[in-house]
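FYI - complex with S-adenosylmethionine, inputs then prediction.
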Amino acid sequence: MHLFRRRSKAAQPVSEPAAAPLTPIANVPVGKPVDDPQPLSLLERARLSGDPFTVSPYFTSSELDIAWEWTDIIEPFLAPHQVDYSAVADFAAGHGRNSVYLLRKSAHLTIIDINQSSIEFCQTRFGNDARIRYLVNDGISLAEIGDNTISFLYSFDSMVHFDPDVIASYLHEFRRVLQPGGMGFCHHSNSNDKPGSDFKQNIHWRNQMSRARFAELCRTAGLEIVDQRVIDWREAIALDCLSLFMKPIPA
Ligand SMILES: C[S@@+](CC[C@H](N)C(=O)[O-])C[C@H]1O[C@@H](n2cnc3c(N)ncnc32)[C@H](O)[C@@H]1O
């Protein structure tokens, strides 16, 4: 999201007052907050990043940026690597501004998004191009995509907003659908300083993630990091990271 909010001044550390002993209140278990909300399920947390984009002015404004983002950010990062564009997935594709560029290189493109509205927009934009498959997914998995079928998984300007556990879930799916030796390119947050915050309150709506944490999640999912680059996003220094990873080829 291109919201130009300024980062708020960092909170100053304060010393903790000594903890007062807990006083039992009738019918309230000691130590449990009175107003304890149920934790959201993973599917519900996926909708937190999906729902703001069912309809959004983002899609019109971001079309103006994709040409320079492709030449200044994406291509320089990918160019040194042997990316196989034979079977590409544009993951969390929105209205397909990246798909336009991927279609210049790819014989088969799967366009995926949690929102039906995005996929309908892409269907109108690209029509019944025989190279394209369209998928509305559940927000945490790629159940409709077969094992070992994708040569390059691509995601730009979407996972920056995702809940970290949703990203962890997807990385296992990326490993499953990637061909051995296939690569994944993910643009994610490198901002990890407000755990538990509502991502929509953070600068450029960044969720909690870092270069190191993403690399660790990749390793846990059985993916090898090939390259990572911390990048600025507009005025925000080192806010994001580009990660390229590979599904290992069995020995
Ligand atoms: C900021 S838009 C970016 C779209 C596109 N990548 C671009 O660069 O224009 C974020 C997209 O991610 C999708 N999205 C959000 N959460 C998702 C999830 N959990 N799974 C799949 N797609 C999701 C939204 O529906 C939206 O289309």
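The first helix runs from residue 42 to 50. Residues 1, 46, 49-50, 53, 58, 62, 92-94, 97-98, 113-115, 118, 137, 139, 156-158, 162, 166 surround S-adenosylmethionine (CB under 6 Å).
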